[in-house]
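Sharing a chain and its predicted structure for anyone who wants a worked example. Both blocks are below, sequence first, tokens second.
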Amino acid sequence: MIAAILFTVVAAACCLAAVLVLLGLGQLTLAGPEALERDGLARGQQAPPWALADQAGLTHRSPPAAPLQLVLFADHSLRSFPSVVAGLRALADGPAGGLEVVIVTRGQAEPSRPALRQLGLTDIPVLSGSPALYAKYNVRVMPFAIFVDSAGRARASSLVNHDWQLAKLRQIAAIPLEAAELALA
């Protein structure tokens, strides 16, 4: 009888240890720079369509009517990234060039709007997204930028921490897609 109880306790401890090892391996797989490289959408991949209304009730869509759209997945935490804010302003205020810029929050946009207004981003629509929309775009961290063309294909995608990264993504987005990238769409 005691042997059976001891066996059950040891077996349960071994099972618990195995589960903890698997969870640890999963955490290692999902963390770190290698995991972040897989976030977002691959260049040429079809971006999930959406239609979201801004504060004024104007509906913004992706794929966009404009030749190119910057979807910035962010919220009031942009205060911690002043260089990204400067890069957004530069893109939004730059030559028209057919670029639409929108900010999509992970939840309701209303709590983020005052902070974004203080940052001088009043001309950029702030849209209420959802965790499901973030998941469709494979976005886990913010601020994350994805450029989408009018055909609904991702043209450039990355986590951004500086204005130069936004500028470089804009340059990459302007490069024509190659046949291999078009095959992803």
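Comments welcome. The radius of gyration is 21 Å.
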